[in-house]
Write a structure and sequence with these properties.
Keywords: Membrane, Transmembrane, Transmembrane helix. It comes from Pedobacter alpinus. This is AtpZ/AtpI family protein. Pfam families: ATPase_gene1. This protein is mostly helical. The protein has 2 helices and no strands. The longest helix is centred in the N-terminal third of the chain and has 45 residues.
Length: 74
């Protein structure tokens, strides 16, 4: 009877791992998206010819999301 539960446990653990890493990916997309959108809105408000705020805030979002991923993987 114990052997029957073993595959279910392993499958559940794999599913939990998959869900964890998927959530991290969506979190990264969300953070970068929010920062890029904020930069876009600032560029739109300032009427800049080159989207400097979009680029800068997008990079800041990337660095923050990488930091959060590294912190959550430890």
């Amino acid at each position: 009877m114990n052997q029957e539960k073993e595959p279910f446990k392993k499958e559940k653990q794999q599913l939990n791992t998959y869900a964890k890493y998927s959530a991290i990916g969506f979190q990264m997309i969300g953070i970068i998206g929010v920062f890029a959108f904020a930069g876009y809105k600032i560029d739109e408000y300032q009427n800049t010819k080159t989207p400097i705020y979009t680029g800068i805030l997008s990079l800041i979002g990337v660095f923050i999301s990488i930091y959060i991923v590294i912190k959550s993987l430890k």
